[in-house]
Amino acid sequence: MPMLDDRPSGPVPPLPIPPWTRSGGSGLPPEGPELADPLPARAPCSARCTVSPRIAAARRISDAGPLSGLQGPMHTARHRRPQQHQTHMAVTVLNETDSEALVEALNRCRTLPSPPGIAIQVVQLAQDPEAGLAEVADLICKDPALATRILRAANSPLYARNREITNLRQALMVLGLHATLSLALGFSLVAGIKKGEQDSLDYPLFWRRAVLAAMVSRALAEHLELDHSDDVFLIGLLQDIGMLALDRAFADYGELFGEATDHDDLAERERARFGSDHAAVGHWLLAKWGLPDFLCRAVGASHDPEGTRDMVPAQRDAVRCVSVSSSIADIFLSQGDREERIRKAARLAQTRLGVEAEAFTSLIESICEHWPETTRVYDLSVEHDFDPDAIMEEARDVLLVRNLHAIQQANEYRDRAESLEERNRTLEMKNRLDGLTNLYNRAYFEERIAEEFGLSDSHGWPLSLAFLDLDHFKRINDTYGHQVGDEVLRSVADVIMNTVRNTDIPCRYGGEEFVVVIPGYGADQAIHACERVRRRVAETPHALVNGEPVHCTLSVGLATHNGPRRFEGHADLGRAADRAVYAAKLGGRNRTVLYDTDSGD
Question: Which residues contact 258 (CB under 8 A, 6 or more apart)?
């Protein structure tokens, strides 16, 4: 590789470094923005059995905020919380034993990797507390290639969707704001940072390894049931970005890279040569880019999980997932004997994360299964691709033949303490739910219908609203008593919850009245959805009294904004749906009536 005048190749003497990069600092200059306290990991589903899977899925979409959910509380236009002081980590960008010459060489290099313009806009939007669905859609639409990749990802098996996503609105609803922003940043960086004429590293291979490690990081996070696995994916994707900076700043980095036997050996050689490794340089580089502070710190700690003791549990687990991902990625990219690499990766996964042999084998199978689709989504080169069948066969042999009993005994019980912030989040969610039916309550409905109407109005997306009223419910209370009446209400709520989409918003409006906000559906689709709910409620026995089933029916009133008719405000849309349900009652009950069509209004 040609030598550059501003890239030193000789020894670098140790000198002081800027004060904000030392222990306890934020990794940013003093004027950098202060960010909120990190959030802890989500408790396993079994610990939150009072909330159904569909409500939980809808809640994740409505609550997920901008980039770096592990950084701190979600900031959205409808859920704002006061910022708190940042929890500092033990890991720093570059410690005091590092060479000032390294910092000077990096600062002097005029060809350091820099994020493309769209990536910068994504970062800025992700840190905007007012950012919402509309702003994200507007930004992504400016880059057709990025919009195409987002749609491709939403339709891929990576997100396990059952129906085709045909437009960006649907993609954002399915993925959620948080995942969309993380994907957008990852896509733009992989596509925008290209190999220069004097770079010695193989950039296609670098990004293949980066995406592979990111997949492993997310799979491990999902195995641990961590919140915000897309953040962990992004950390895994960027954990080695410092290599590109070192390659641009030092002419002999390619030679050093080529001499390394594996990832750990490369880090040791970097520390011997430069006084620091590419993880610390990656922290420094990402801070210069203005990425969220936790993401920068996590990249800096990605090769030293022991330096995460000052983090909250969710952050520690995220970094440990990333620290294991490199060893697992090496299994897939190794050209020689993989046996030792498989053994090493399995040991790390067990001791650091409690992943036992069976789960480790399943993780390898999952990566092999999803890798072809991932290469398509990220437009990665498939030259010299690995043989998934050969890797799976070898992994099974190693993990079955080798005695992993000692590994499986280590760290059998791992601490998963909940923090005060997690308890506050749980309490906040309980305040949004109806105590009897576990659907969202009326106050939350009023909040969401106003927001969804605004989005529908500004983007021209359809928005449907359904009012559902139990027929002759007073007769059930009078005949069987209020205890049976409450049982019927809970049963009807369960049917509604398990029949609507996970992007719909089912609520109890009051008494025997329910309401469902249906974003993105026009009148025809909404009628079909309401009829499906009505039929299932009518077919389901909702209680047993003296061995006899208690049945009931629904009258449904439906109104659609941005269909054949537009409404002035969400209150008008609500009044129209209410008139339609009244028309359904007059028409004989147990039917669905669309406002302005069947209601005669």
Answer: none
Which H helix or E strand runs over 514? Answer: strand 513-519
Give the closest residue to 558 by CA, choosing from 589, 528, 526: 526
Dihedral of CA 347/352/357/363: which sign?
A: negative
CA distance 579 to 594: 10
SS3 (DSSP) at 596: coil
- The answer to whether 227 touches 176, Cβ cutoff 8 Å, is no
H or E element that contains 577: helix 570-586
Residue 463 C-alpha from the chain's centroid: 25
Task: Look at phi and psi of residue 383 and say left if phi exceeds 0, alpha if psi is from -120 to 50, else beta.
Answer: beta
Record the tokens describing residue 240, joined without a space.
């080695």
Structure tokens at 328: 């697992």
Residue 76 or residue 243, greater confidence: 243
- The burial of 400, by beta-carbon neighbours within 10 Å (0-12 exposed, 13-18 middle, 19 or more buried), is given as exposed
554-561 and 548-550 strand pairing: unpaired
Q: Please state, in angstroms and rounded to a whole number, the distance separating the CA atoms of residues 216 and 263.
A: 16
User: Could you give the domains of the chain?
Assistant: 64-80+113-193 (1.10.3210.10), 195-423 (1.10.3210), 432-594 (3.30.70.270)
Question: In angstroms, what CA-CA distances link 526 with 59, 439, 500, 563?
Answer: 21, 20, 10, 11
Among 11, 12, 19, 8, CA closest to 99: 12
Please say if the pLDDT value at position 22 is more than 90. no
The CA distance from 452 to 450, in Å, is 6
As a whole number of angstroms, the distance between CA 567 and CA 570 comes to 7
d(CA 545, CA 562): 45
Cβ count within 10 A of residue 101 = 18
Residue 129's φ and ψ, nearest 5 degrees, are -65, -15
Q: Whole-angstrom Cα distance, residue 254 to residue 521?
A: 54
Q: Encoding tokens for residue 126?
A: 């992700």
Q: How far apart are CA 303 and CA 21, in angstroms?
A: 18
- Is 129:453 a contact under the CB 8 Å cutoff? no
Q: Give 282-339 pLDDT, tens digit per residue.
A: 999 988 888 888 888 889 888 877 766 667 778 888 888 998 888 888 888 776 667 7
Average pLDDT over residues 430-457: 92
Distances in Å between the alpha carbon of 18 and those of 23, 98, 112, 338? 11, 11, 19, 42
Q: What is the pLDDT of residue 20?
A: 24
